[in-house]
Amino acid sequence: ALHSLLATDSVKQAFQRAFGQTSDRFYRLFFNIVGGLTFLPVLAVAALDPGQTLYQLTRPWVLLTSAGQALAALLLLLGLLQTDSLHFLGLRQISHPDASEPSKLVINGLYCHVRHPLYTAGLLFIWLTPVMTASVLALNLGLTLYIIIGSIFEERRLVGEFGQAYNDYQRRVPRLIPRPGKCYPPGQVISKART
After folding, report:
1. How many helices, marked H, and strands, marked E, lie in the chain?
2. Rounded to an integer, what is the distance from CA 152 to the centroid of its chain?
3. How far apart are CA 124 and CA 135, in angstroms?
4. Exposed, middle or buried: residue 158 (CB in 10 Å: 0-12, 13-18, 19+)?
5. What is the percentage of the chain residues whose pLDDT exceeds 90?
6. Hey, how many other C-beta atoms are within 10 angstroms of the C-beta on 138?
7. Cis peptide before 50 (omega within 30 of 0)
8. Cα gap 190→22, rounded to integer Å
9. Element (DSSP H or E) covering residue 147
10. d(Cα 86, Cα 94) in Å, to the nearest integer?
């Protein structure tokens, strides 16, 4: 909830008023650090109190799910490499504070199959676990719900930033589950100044 609240424009503007005009360049890094720190206790609970084991896969299934998790991790890395991952983490803004650089809507590579390949890869990774406990199930359900709801809010922001180009992209490319053989025409759409 805090992570979603911090993503709103009103909180970003309040941060800027409180810390000055140049604080914009630190906001994304602050956002990611707070998000990571608030998620650590949730992970700790799942690790320290796993609850009842619901299933534990054996060979060959454990090998298949582990291979699936490795593929999901690779897809996550490829998705990050396709976008400006340093900007995503908040590091580029610190070293290059020019906030007027335009954003690019990447619609090729993994992004021509699903609009949110990082979320898709993350969901694959968490659900292909070879050992499912009650705590991990609760965590995975919560993460799945968070990702779905978060993608809805993110898309509202992207429609505001890219307009009709993003609406067209939404009509042609599925949100999280790819359609085999379907791909949006490759390329990039340039937006107004990045914020």
Report:
1. 9, 4
2. 12
3. 18
4. buried
5. 48
6. 14
7. no
8. 24
9. helix 134-162
10. 10
State the DSSP code for 183.
-
Token output for 80: 């990050």
- Residue 143 tokens read as 């993460």
Q: How far, in whole angstroms, is CA 135 from its chain's centroid?
A: 22
Residue environment code for 169-194, b if the CB has 16+ CB neighbours within 10 A, otherwise e: beeebeeeeeeeeebbeeeebebeeb
For 80, residues 6+ apart whose C-beta sits below 8 A from its C-beta are 88, 118
Cα dihedral value 46, 144, 108, 95, nearest 10: -50
- This prediction has a pTM of 0.83
Please, are residues 191 and 103 in contact by the beta-carbon 8 Å criterion? Answer: yes
Reported as a single tens digit per residue, the pLDDT across 40-82 is 888 898 889 999 999 999 999 999 999 999 999 999 999 988 8
